[in-house]
Each structure stands twice: as C-alpha cells, then as structure tokens.
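Revision sheet: structure tokens.
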Amino acid sequence: ASDLGGANTAVLSIVGESSAGNVWGKTLKKGETVRIMTGGKVPSGADAIIPFEQVTLTDDGHVMVKDAVKAGQFIRRPGEDIKQGETVLRSGALIQSPHIGVLASLGCKKVRVSQSPRVNILATGDEITDIDEDPEEGQIRNSTSYALSGYVHAAGGTPALLGISPDKRKQTKRRIKEGLECDLLLITGGVSVGKYDYVKAALEEIGVDIKFWKVNIKPGKPLLFGRWKNTLVFGLPGNPASTMVTFLQFVRPAINAMLGRIDGMPLRFSAILEQEFSKTDGKRHFLRGSLSEIEGHLHVRTSGSQSSGVMSSMARANCLIIIPEDVTKIQSGERVIVEML
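Predicted:
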C-alpha cells in the first residue's frame, strides 16, 4: 500500500507468483509485486492484495495500479478461524458435519466421545402382535416399539427390541428382569390401574426404586420412572401418542444427560393458533401440531385427532403445541408455545 503513496497510483514490477500450495519464498522490495491466487501465501514485504480486475497489465511485465489500496485488504490472517489456545469443541457437544470438518482441519483423526446408551424396549399386552403377524380380533400390531426404536436412535442411543410380554404377572416379572441388563429400559403398556396392568408391581418385586408414578400431563399420565442399580427404567403408557409424548418429554432428556449433551434442548417458538381450544382437567396438554409460516408469521393448528390411540396425527405433526396447566381456553388468533419435533 505504501508503494502508491498519496497519489493512489503506481507501476510495479511483477517478480513472481504465489499460488495455493506453492509459496513464493522471497521478500518483496519496494516497487515489486507478485501474482497471487486465492489460497496463496502472502509473501514477506507485502501488505495488501489488489483484485486482478482493478489493475492494468503492461507488455513489459509491469502492473499499473490506479485505485486506492488499503493496507491489509483481501488478506486472511492466521488465527482468523481459530486462535491459538481457543476452545474448539466443548465436552457434551453433538458432533455434526461442520464439527467433523473443523476437527479434520486441525488434524484430529480421533476424538473421545460418550458411549451410546444401550436401550432395551419391551412391549406388554395380550392385544399386541408383531408387525409381520396378522392381528386377530381385538389385537393390534406392535407399532410403539418400532417408533421408540427410531426415537432412541435419533437421540443417540442404541435400541434393542425385546419383543412382547403377555399380560401374565410371572412372565411380566421375568421379562422385565431379563431386560434390565442395559443402561435404560423402556416398557410400554401395563403401567396404569387396569386389572392386568402388572408392570408397576413387577418392578417393585424385582427391587426397582420407583421415583414417581403418574404425571400431570395429557397424553401420558400413567408414566412411571425408577432405577435399578445403574439402569434407568421408564414405564411408558401403551397408547401410541402417549408413548411418544412421554419419550420426548422425559426419556430423551434422560438420554441427553447420559450422553452429557449440552445442546439437547428442543427448540420452542411462539406461534398463532388457528383454532379454538379448551380444557378443564388442569393438566399440561401436548397437542400434535402442524406449524407453517404465513406472511412472515408462524401459525399452528392441530395435525389431526388428538386421541392418545392415534399415531397418524403424530406422523403428520412437525411440532407439539404446549397448553399450560392453568389455561382453560384459547381463542383462535391467540399465541401459544410450540416445541419443534
């Protein structure tokens, strides 16, 4: 830049070339310049780069500069991306594609990570058949185990399906005891107060320390949580929507904690509800919703039936609409909180 002086014009001799991976190792003197390509190392003695389009080349190997040049322009300094001593990744961060690129740029071929929790999934109920069987009258296929397997995988766990336990007290106890050899056991069904709901009693007989049973939400009230040695145990309601909501609100945070994740909280936004809603039960409701943008504003409406036995409205949903315990009525056009799925 000093070669131009106050006149903002200079004729410089082209004395070399610096390109990506090929360093021009000499030192520039006053009145000299080199061609430099994107990614090339700036030679010693140079303090600015001028775009090729802003200069005039002469036939005798010189370049004429007629525009003002600011010292430091178009130069990428060492440490511009990551400075010496800077923390690149914190413990608990989920490694995604950009992080892999940063690690590769620093020559980190290996990185220590958390072990994926082993998650066993056991379904219960005489009414449940596996997906490759034709249900008889009064039966349904084991959809919740497969949905949970997908959720566990997405959360960073390693799922294992243990099949189906019939509604028999001794068999329920035996299958649960076998399933406890893991980091986290998920049991679907059998946790309510029905005549054949044996899960809670079986857990108590095995010696599982039950921390709580039943939560003030809809769907998902019969949720149970306990510990057996180092194994976490969740008894999830059998209805598909209840299973998925309780997984997202309780099990996924537990998996995040087991992994030590620091960025696992779901995204929540304010959106305009496009329909009326009312309730009188004093519970926190999680409605399956469809969020969209209309003229720069987020709008949401339910994605279908809110029956706890309906799974298709969860498949169509991209969010949960959260209705607090003390809210009894929301008018169309009022704002609600949505949690992205």
